């Protein structure tokens, strides 16, 4: 399989966490691309120009992180969407994914407006990030050691992406439970191997 990625995308990280936790890393070739540069081979695979994009061994092209996760669940265990406590797991994942969407919207919005952070949309996105992390603090996902799933994938991705991209504040200053949870995930091979970087 071939996976188009970049090194900062939180959506790429969700997929890479699944690949690592499912033991598929030796079956997936990673290709780093700059989605904003519109590389020809990448656009041929995904005209939307978004990462992650997976090309299966059979040549099927699957774009969008959640669709790729669904496919990976079909070919390898453990399930990212476990049947046990599924609703509770998804309820934890939801605000984390919302915070991630908000954070990426700000980064992209800044490309079109110097005042994006403080305008109506940007301000709402900041609120969504803060609220999402606060909800995680009040309703923590399982530790990776207990069970890797969409909730802890989404939580570690949201938290690490926000602290990576928005360094002007201590996002965990008033979130002791989430801070302690993140500390416990240190050293997990999948978490360390997929950290965002420029």
TrEMBL record:
InterPro entries: Glutathione-S-Trfase_C_sf, Glutathione_S-Trfase_N, GST_Omega/HSP26, Thioredoxin-like_sf. Residues 1-80 form the GST N-terminal domain. It comes from the Bacteria. PANTHER family: GLUTATHIONE S-TRANSFERASE OMEGA, PTHR43968. This is Glutathione S-transferase. It comes from Ruegeria sediminis.
């Amino acid at each position: 399989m071939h996976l188009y990625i970049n090194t900062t995308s939180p959506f790429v990280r969700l997929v890479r966490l699944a690949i690592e936790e499912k033991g598929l890393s030796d079956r997936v070739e990673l290709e780093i691309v700059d989605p904003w540069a519109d590389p020809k081979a990448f656009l041929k695979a995904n005209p939307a120009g978004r990462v992650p994009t997976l090309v299966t061994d059979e040549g099927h092209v699957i774009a969008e992180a959640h669709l790729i996760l669904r496919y990976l669940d079909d070919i390898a265990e453990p399930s990212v969407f476990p049947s046990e406590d599924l609703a509770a797991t998804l309820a934890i994942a939801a605000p984390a994914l919302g915070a991630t969407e908000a954070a990426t919207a700000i980064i992209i919005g800044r490309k079109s407006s110097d005042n994006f952070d403080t305008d109506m949309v940007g301000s709402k996105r900041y609120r969504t990030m803060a609220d999402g992390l606060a909800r995680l603090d009040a309703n923590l996902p399982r530790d990776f050691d207990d069970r890797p799933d969409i909730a802890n994938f989404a939580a570690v991705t949201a938290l690490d992406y926000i602290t990576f991209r928005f360094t002007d504040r201590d996002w965990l200053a008033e979130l002791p439970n989430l801070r302690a949870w993140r500390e416990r995930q240190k050293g997990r091979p999948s978490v360390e191997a997929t950290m965002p970087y420029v």
